[in-house]
Amino acid sequence: MCSLLARQLIIMPTVDQVASMKLKELQDELQKLGLKKSGRKAECKERLLGALGSAAHPELDTSKSRNDSSSLRDSNYAVSKTDDVWLHRGGVDCYTNTKRRSLRNPEVDHCWEVQLLDLAWTRGVVQNAVYGPAHNTRHSRRSAMDVVNDVGNLNVTSHLVNQKKKGPFMRFCNSERKIDSGMQCLRHQKIRDCIRLSAAADTSRHSEMQKMIDNGTWDNIEHAVARAYDDMRDQAQQVLGSRAGDRAKAWESFEEELAVLLRRMGIE
Q1: Using an 8 Å Cβ cutoff, are 4 and 10 in contact?
Q2: Is residue 242 within 8 Å of residue 131, measured between CB atoms?
């Protein structure tokens, strides 16, 4: 059974309507949903957009891996890969096209957010009825980690862009996890829907999210995600070759789930 909030998503206002609402209108919509309606206009707008997106705010993200035994995160990647990533990217941040010497507050970022990678691994390997837990071994996971934490899935960008990039992908990931948990009445969100929700909820003075949409940064990020999928697939082929063991089977199932996520995000 879906919650009352989930059932009412289909009759809620659009993102554009929410963006133009006055405080009293926002409070009325929040009251209909049984949500807290006190606070400033910006707070009410963000609360309503969060309900509309059927996703927790990024800072309350529930998709982060709680079980290291199924996570593909490598905590050492940022320290050890920086120069290699710059070399791979030709000395340019592929999100903003900023050259290395001009980039302020640089950080190494996964093109595919780790939470998305973990979601695909959980679906394709951990919860796969065909392969079962036997394929979620340390060796199988290590092989996948070596690929997803390598330069094909990494980019160096500014701290600001790195932080703003997380929100829409966390919204998408959270909505997918809610659907997995049985809330089948929720529709699959495209990443563009999540970007618009995050931009509408961005109450910062100069709306950096909207700037990233207008200047083409988000187009570049989507392209980087699509290209990273191809690069990871090619690298896995080189590493695993034509092997038929558990590691190869685990990667194949994982890769299929990545392709499913690409389609659901609407990234080509």
Answers
A1: no
A2: no
Is the whole-model pTM more than 0.70? yes
Which residue has 């990678």 as its token pair?
117
111-157 pLDDT tens trace = 999 999 999 999 998 888 776 666 667 788 888 999 999 999 999 99
Nearest to 121 by CA among 226, 258, 225, 224: 258
Q: How far is CA 27 from CA 10, 44, 64, 98, 198, in A?
A: 19, 7, 31, 42, 20
* DSSP secondary structure, 99-117, as one string: EGGG-SSEEEEESS-HHHH
Structure tokens at 30: 């929040």
Asked whether the beta carbons of 53 and 175 are under 8 A apart, the reply is yes
Helix (H) / strand (E) containing 92: strand 92-93
